[in-house]
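Re: that chain you flagged

S.,

Sorry for the slow reply, it's been a week of failed gels. I finally had a moment to sit down with the sequence you sent. For the record, here it is as I used it:
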Amino acid sequence: MRHPEIVLPRLIAHRGLSARAPENTLTAVRAAQAADCRWVELDVQLLGDGTPVIWHDATVKRCSDGRARLADLDLPRARRLDVGGWFGDEFRGERMATLSEMLVLVEALGLGLNLELKVNRGRSPAALAEEAVPAALDVLPPERLIVSSFSAEALACSRDLAPASRLALGVLFEGIPDDWRQSCEALEAFSVHADWTRLRRRDAVAVREAGYPLLCYTANDPAAFAHQWDWGVTSAISDDPSRFIGHLPPEA
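Prediction finished late last night. Pasting the structure tokens below so you have them in one place:
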């Protein structure tokens, strides 16, 4: 098994530069690149008509001027939503990004992408993987793409679509369970992703000693996070990576 030659930075922008622009939007990704971020983390799921879009929640209530389940929207209805004004007046008129649009932008900006397959309740993990993974592989080189998910089914379907040499998979956990390694080996995973607030030193050390990059979400307090660099964490996924300037260990 040989994975793509991925070189991860210490910091990855969570949902784009989501501390300074509306999350999971084209604007947030442009802002991340302007702030010298080299990788972004984004969520993808399907509209009711099967269109893959960059979105986190099961509904549009929190991050738009509408109220609907994503599963009940088709693309024309989704496009009518303002997904920027909730964040600030200067972002009014921002529209929901399709996966296709986002991939074109990420490629044009030369960024790496951690694409999370977001499987909300009642949605099909297989359908999401089948729509999102080939599309991402068609646009981005393997060394600039990690597909991650909490859903074992979504990851298994993703692995069926591409071998480990072509597609890096990240297994998402909250707290790292005792059987983490079996899960990773079954999927031929590249990386382990964990909630930094639930990470234990022994688990971090075990993951790194087993040869897996360890990515932690969502870290916004560099002082509180500092000891985790000593545990071997590879990358921190942050809403505002600039907070970590001056608080980073040397890159490996």
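What I noticed first: The longest helix spans residues 125-139.

Talk soon,
D.
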